[in-house]
Structure formats: structure tokens, C-alpha cells
Amino acid sequence: MMEPKYQNLVEYFRAQMRKDPDMASAVAAIRTLLEFLKRDKGETILGLRESLKWATDCLTGEDSSVAVSSGGELFLRFISLTSLEHQDLSRCKKVMEERGELFLEKISMSRTKVAKLCHTFIKDGAKILTHSYSRVVLRVLEKAAAEKKRFSVYVTESQPDSAGRQMAEALRKLNVPVTVVLDAAVGYVLEKVDLVIVGAEGVVESGGIINKIGTYQMAVCSKAHNKPFYVVAESFKFVRLYPLNQQDVPDKFKYKADTLKTVQNLSEEHPMIDYTPPSLITLLFTDLGVLTPSAVSDELIKLYL
Amino acid sequence: MPGPDKETDLTERIEAFLFDLNRGGSGAGPLRGSAETARETTALLRRITAQARWSSAGDLMEIIRNEGRRMTAAQPSETTVGNMIRRVLKIIREEYARSRGSSEEADQQESLHKLLTSGGVSDENFRQPFAALKPNVIEAINELLTELEGTTDNIAMQALEHIHSNEVIMTIGRSRTVEAFLKDAARKRKFHVIVAECAPFCQGHEMATSLSKAGIETTVITDAAIFAVMSRVNKVIIGTQTVLANGGLRAVNGTHTLALAAKHHSTPLIVCAPMFKLSPQVRRLSFLSDFYRYCEILSKVNVHCPVFDYVPPELITLFISNIGGHAPSYIYRLMSELYHPEDHEL
């Protein structure tokens, strides 16, 4: 009885990701959970929460990124907050569905808001360094290019999946001069660069970020060269994690979902993400405004406590 | 007819204020302190609220925003004007929310919480007229004016906690806030002050004269001697022109040098800045283009004379404002209390 439900859920999630490759994985996860909510036939709010928790676990089993996990947690929090206001289940579900749609509408605007805030920090003639493929950074650079600013971009290749090349392709389509550099060449290229902009898969409570492996290195080098290190992220990526060092990041985020399921000895695998502490980040651009890393925990507290 | 007369009187006053702002910037008019500018701006905004024709909060905010844009365009380096306008806009929003009966928390910043729980598209067009709005707003602006009048005293009151006997304190240029701060401490403690003269305007000389008249042992040094003397200094206390949203400063030329020297010697750097200097701007990589005034003395020589410096937040230890002491990382929080995010861009 569980199997078809699981299949449907995962299929829906995959279909969402396929339909719109530009959509953030967290948004697809929240959309899937909302659909699940609509189809759920539970009788009690507690039962609803249980089945939503189960659904979130399925989704994280499919795509182990931090963003999906934070999107799921946010949705669960949304359910708790709404269920506190209305005791009756059917009324509650109706309100949840309405608010859920509204919420999805708002967060689909978040990338535009971030781009609006960030593009003013890119001056004419600037040289930007970025890491791997980030749709938010791409949107920011699109906006800057649309404002007729001239700038050039260095992108790291970002092994093991060469995602940087995808970013370079996308930038070439915008007629932005772009150079792909080796991951090892970050220190070499930093003296030519004016600012560093990266995306984030997750923003943690301390104000640090979790992003593709190689970001921490870039941050340390930027600090050494005194270049500003900017992070662009939507607010639904804020996650209740407080890692103190690289080892503290849970294994379930470090490796891809299929690796976690199949491989026995994780110590032989290469992690896909790393943690950048807040002391290396200059500013975070989110749809909630331009934040200093210390402001991030404030936002999380407002939501969760 | 009282109507048109009031309006022409109002327009005259606004024009006079704009003219003064413009003159003050080019160095032709009398040099005014930022506290004075803040008070005059607020008084003018109160007059606009009282005399201009408006029916709803939305209209008033539009009028103030328009006048605000003209005022900031007249003198872009005087950020207190823009700050006061944003404070008044926030006051109007709060009074409107209070009149509508909704809780004050409801219409504040965007937050994750608000994203999740808001029930519908916010209908904040501020169009509903309320009779009690005008007197409420004027009263709130009066409270703001009272706060502005007391800022220097509030800051000076905290001096005894920070300055101890037989200390050597360094400062730069001339700041009325720091002057009051040091004079207040001098009533009970004996300490030594070193003032960097801050060329080419050499305002440090006036500061030193004023401090020595109050009985404080003062020494004037050139800007180049800052690093050399820093090893003997216990604390550095400075004023600033503006406090930026990331906790950094836009302060008089030479402050960044002072801050770096203090960091090198691990000397605490204390900034005395009243709340009206807090601005929602963040420093951009503008390569100092806003910070310059040019002086051309010979036809073949351009002398660049930057008036302001940017000091990054990492070099600052403590901010002392009229509401107490704060760390630079806390400035974002104070900002969210003083201004509404939609008013960051006027």
C-alpha cells in the first residue's frame, strides 16, 4: 500500500524538476508536498504531520541536497503554524492549501528580488569570480547585463561534475566574456578579480553557507586577498544546522542520494559540499534584504521560536 | 486666504532649506553640525505634515518622499537628511497601523515567518483616511525632536564607564559628540588626550583648543605620526559622519589609517555616534567617487582631496549611541527598528 504512494510522490517530484529546470529543488519539493497535502485522506492533524514527515524523508532519499531538506522543514513548520490557528481539520486544510499556493507564488519571486538587490554591487568594468553552476548567480549576472553593465566573469570548472562549464555556456549566451579556470587556479586568479559572488545550497544558523565543494577554499583565498565575498541565496534555504567545522556537516548532505544508498565505506567517497564559516562572508543577498551573517540567525529565530 | 499663503510659506521654507544645504556643501556657507541638520530637517518635515494638503497616509508619504528626494539631491554627502526622512516615513507607517488597529508587529519587515503565515496579498496602500492621524504623527515627530535634542547628553553620560584615570585617549579631527563625551569624563577623571590634526582642514586644532579650555591635557600630532604614537595609547575614541548598514563607517579622511593603526596595536576603537547617523546604505565598490571634492591649484596639477574615508566593521570595537553601547554586528538590528525596508530607496 505504501509502494504506489511512494512511486507517485517521487514521480511527481521528478516531473516538477524536469518540467522547469530553472526551478530550485526546494521549490519543487515544496510543490510536491503541497500536492501530497491536497491528496492526503488523513483524518487528524497529527496523522497529516506524520505522513508529511514520511513524504519529506522520501524526497530527501531521492535528492539529498540541503535545499530539499530545508524546503521540507519549512513546509512542516508552515503546517504547524497554520494548524495552531485552526483546530478543525477540513477548515485547516483549506487554509493550508490557499496559503501554500500564496507561499509558492512568493518564493518563485525570490530570485528576482535577490537579483534586484545584488546587481547594484557590480560596477562597470568589474571582474567577478564565481564557483560552479548557480541559477541565482546567473540571474544576478543577467540583471547586471540587462542594465548595460560591462563585466567579465571567471568560473571555476568545479569537478567532479564540471558544472562550471554549464555556467560558462549560459554566460556566453548572454554575451558576457567568461573564462573557465581550474579549481586549483583560484588563488592564482584572485589578484585580477574585484569581487567574488557564489550561490548557496543552504544557509546555516551561524550565517555560514553550505555549497559545492571548493567554496570554502575560495572564501579563504578571498579573505587573504581582501576581496569581498558575497553570497546570494533565497530565504527558503535557511536551515537549522549549526556546524562548527567541516566534520560537523551531516553525512546525508555530503554525498549524493544514490551514493548513500549503495556505498558501504563512505570514507572513500569524495564529499560534494563543504561548509564556509560566517567570518569569511562579507554580505548575504537574500529576498529578505541584504544581511550580514549575524542577521541570519535572527531570521531563523523569528521563524522557529 | 490662509490656504495658498500657508502653501507659499511652506514652499519658501523648503527652498530656503535646500539652498542652505547646497551652500553648506560647497564650503561657502557656515559649517553646520549634523545634529543641527537633523533637527532642522525634522522640524521642516513636521511643518510639511502640519501645513501641506493631504487626505491619507499614502498622500503624506508621497509628499515627504518627493521633498526628501529633492533634499538628498541638494547635498548627497549629508546623509542625516535622508535618515530623518526615513524615520518620519516609518513613524507614519506605525501611526497608520496603530489607527487601523492592527498590531505594530504585523507590518514590519519581511521575514520567513511572515512569508509562511500571511493570509493574503498585503493591501498596504495606506489609502484609508483617519482624522486622528495628523495630530498623532505630529506628536510622534515631536518625540523624535526631543530625542534628537538629548542625543549628545545621552552619549556623554556614558563617558565615565569607558574612560578611566591616567588613560591616554586618541581622537582625530573635530567631533562635537566626542568633545562632549571627553568633557563629561573630565569632570571626575584625569586623563590625557592626543588629537590628530586631520589635514588639510586641520579641525583637530579647534578640538584641542576646546578640550584644553575644559582643563584636559591635550597634545596635537600630525596625521603621519598616528602610527608612531599609537603604542602609548589606551583607547581610540572617534566620531563619524555616517554609520553604514553593515557596521562600517563613513568618517573624516584619515580615520581608516587611525583604525588600522589601532588594530595593529590591539587598541580598542570606540565610535561615538548618535542614532540619527545610522544610514541604510551599504558601502559599494564605488572607488571613492562619492567621497571627493576637487581642488585645482595649478593648471597642470590636480590635487585630490578626499573628504571621507570608509572604515570596515572589522576594525571597530564598540559603538556608543544615545541608546547604549553596541557591537558592529548588531547594527543591522538597530536599522530594522528605525527604518522600514521599503524606504531604504527613497
From TrEMBL, chain A:
InterPro entries: eIF2B_alpha/beta/delta, elF-2B_alpha_N, IF-2B-related, IF_2B-like_C, NagB/RpiA_transferase-like. It is found in: Cytoplasm, Cytosol. GO terms for molecular function: guanyl-nucleotide exchange factor activity; translation initiation factor activity. Keywords: Cytoplasm, Initiation factor, Protein biosynthesis. The keyword Nucleotide-binding does not apply. It comes from the Eukaryota. GO terms for cellular component: cytosol; eukaryotic translation initiation factor 2B complex. Acts as a component of the translation initiation factor 2B (eIF2B) complex, which catalyzes the exchange of GDP for GTP on eukaryotic initiation factor 2 (eIF2) gamma subunit. Its guanine nucleotide exchange factor activity is repressed when bound to eIF2 complex phosphorylated on the alpha subunit, thereby limiting the amount of methionyl-initiator methionine tRNA available to the ribosome and consequently global translation is repressed. Component of the translation initiation factor 2B (eIF2B) complex which is a heterodecamer of two sets of five different subunits: alpha, beta, gamma, delta and epsilon. Subunits alpha, beta and delta comprise a regulatory subcomplex and subunits epsilon and gamma comprise a catalytic subcomplex. Within the complex, the hexameric regulatory complex resides at the center, with the two heterodimeric catalytic subcomplexes bound on opposite sides. Belongs to the eIF-2B alpha/beta/delta subunits family. This is Translation initiation factor eIF2B subunit alpha.
Automatic annotation (TrEMBL), chain B:
It comes from the Eukaryota. It is found in: Cytoplasm, Cytosol. One of its GO terms (biological process) is central nervous system development. The keyword Protein biosynthesis applies. Keywords: Cytoplasm, Initiation factor, Protein biosynthesis. InterPro entries: eIF2B_beta_subunit, IF-2B-related, IF_2B-like_C, NagB/RpiA_transferase-like. Coiled coil: none annotated. GO terms for molecular function: guanyl-nucleotide exchange factor activity; translation initiation factor activity. GO terms for cellular component: cytosol; eukaryotic translation initiation factor 2B complex. Belongs to the eIF-2B alpha/beta/delta subunits family. Component of the translation initiation factor 2B (eIF2B) complex which is a heterodecamer of two sets of five different subunits: alpha, beta, gamma, delta and epsilon. Subunits alpha, beta and delta comprise a regulatory subcomplex and subunits epsilon and gamma comprise a catalytic subcomplex. Within the complex, the hexameric regulatory complex resides at the center, with the two heterodimeric catalytic subcomplexes bound on opposite sides. Acts as a component of the translation initiation factor 2B (eIF2B) complex, which catalyzes the exchange of GDP for GTP on eukaryotic initiation factor 2 (eIF2) gamma subunit. Its guanine nucleotide exchange factor activity is repressed when bound to eIF2 complex phosphorylated on the alpha subunit, thereby limiting the amount of methionyl-initiator methionine tRNA available to the ribosome and consequently global translation is repressed. PANTHER family: TRANSLATION INITIATION FACTOR EIF-2B SUBUNIT BETA (PTHR45859). This is Translation initiation factor eIF2B subunit beta. The lineage of its organism: Eukaryota, Metazoa, Chordata, Craniata, Vertebrata.
